[in-house]
Amino acid sequence: MFDFDTPLPLRDTHCSKWDAVASVFKDLPEQPPVDEVIPMWVADMDFKAAPPILAALEAEVSRGHLGYFTNDRPIAELVGQWMQTHHGWQVDPDWVRFTRGVIEGVALAVGAFSARGDEIIVFSPVYHAFYRKVEALGRVIRESELVLEDGVYHMDLDALEASLSGREKIVILCSPHNPGGRLWSQAELAAVAAFCEKHDLILVSDEIHMDLTFPGQSHLPTGAAAPDSYSRLIMLSAASKGFNTAGGETGFAIIPDPSVRAAIDVVRSAISGTMNRFGMATTKAAFSDGAEWSLAVRTYLAGNFTLWRDRISTLPGIKVMDMPSTYLTWVDFSGTGMDAAEVRLRLGRDARIATNPGAQFGTGGEMYNRFNIAMPRPLMINAIERMEAAFADLQ
Fold first, then answer.
1. Are the C-beta atoms of residues 121 and 131 closer than 8 Å to each other?
2. Which of 132, 120, 227, 216 is nearest to 173 (CA)?
3. Are 119 and 125 in contact (CB under 8 A)?
4. Pure H helices in 182-235
5. How do beta strands 353-354 and 328-332 pair?
6. Fewest beta carbons less than 10 Å away: which of 43, 156, 354, 390?
7. Residue pair 175/184 in contact by the 8 Å Cβ criterion
8. How far apart are CA 324 and CA 220, in angstroms?
9. pLDDT tens-digit series, residues 290-302
């Protein structure tokens, strides 16, 4: 019913993933021809958006008036319904605050609950934008490195507790984890919440990948896993990642506690205006009528991942982390005997593939690369074949 195999003409369309690939290779001594590169870096899907979303945008345009947006209450109610139906968390629409994307939500939390010089805890390796935003606001990143056991990441809260300086104010959790696709268990989420309660920390849970679990898997919101965390919880998410509408720059925060909401509202009023009309239209359409497309795309992504993992993992010294969600695969090159620079050169010059180098994601990511496999399967197979050729000499 939905066609994910036919490529879209995305080059020269102001698409960051396709038209900014030269920036990936700017520090390489030998750069590939940009028009030959397969982009596997920016976290967009190369698929046409769901028909209800396209219809909603067409309706906005055909009306002919593109003015300021107001009355987000009906869409907040849809957020609550989606969270209840698809993620098992009962959310009061009054808890919802819309943002210009999840990273703006991070900035709101950092601005409301910390001061310059305070420390913000992240579990590394983790989404690189956390580092940029926190440091741009004059705060200090405190890394708590994830522990890899049997190919699966785990948080080490005991080690984190032993390292605390007393200047920490916020914990940022990525759930599902990016990179790596890890779905945290109820016990793990409850433990993080209890840690924040013990040390009087605000818990910011970035759950933007919540709608990208593979069929048979489920995402557990932090608020559902740890209802005792409500007094300090800020859950951030969006329809944009699961429904490929990031250009609308629209996300939301779910904040159960009224005093936490009030603090966020103060900062939000200083830096935010009305919401993007088109982003709100796509959010409304996704959460109203997008469930069928969501299941179809997640099924396709799961098939892509199985093929990717099975082929790439046969290359000597290269490991693909298994994952139950997202389309961002985390590939370990540490067994190749190469350093990170040589790996990047082979990926860029020889394979002509644009990736996110693992060092961007902080401590623990140095010998990894992140690959986006949300693309038509024939193109992904092309990328696999390029990888196989670029690393054919491995023994």
1. no
2. 120
3. no
4. 186-198, 222-225
5. unpaired
6. 156
7. yes
8. 13
9. 999 999 999 999 9
